[in-house]
Design brief:
Elements (H helix, E strand, L loop, with lengths): L1 H4 L2 H14 L2 H12 L2 E2 H8 L3 H13 L3 E6 L2 E6 L2 H9 L4
Antiparallel strand pairs: 1-3, 2-3
Helix pairs in contact: 3-5, 4-5
Length: 95
């Protein structure tokens, strides 16, 4: 009964979602990506981050379903994975 009401799998997914939002750098990255697709180097410059730090945060956002990436040559570009979700989060002032 407990697993039906409080599934471990669903709880883990929700935890991943909220942990991704629990960092001001990741919130700032999401706001940047709302304006347009950006390569890692642009995120680095905009937020004064090192490449490993920017990639780490972008990876967390991607793993939680907030961002997606595409490769073009040696560049990796990130964009919002679910614009409607981000828009709804803005409406209820989560972002």
């Amino acid at each position: 009964f407990a697993d039906e009401v409080a599934s471990v799998k669903i709880a883990d997914e929700h935890t991943k979602f909220f942990k991704a939002l629990a960092d001001s750098t990741r919130i700032r990255i999401l706001r940047l990506l709302e304006t347009r697709e950006m390569c890692v180097c642009e995120v680095m410059i905009a937020l004064d981050l090192t490449q490993p730090t920017a990639s780490h945060h972008l990876g967390i956002l991607e793993d939680a379903g907030f961002a997606k990436h595409r490769k073009k040559g040696k560049w990796v570009y990130y964009h919002i994975a679910k614009p409607d979700m981000i828009s709804n989060m803005r409406k209820i002032r989560i972002l």
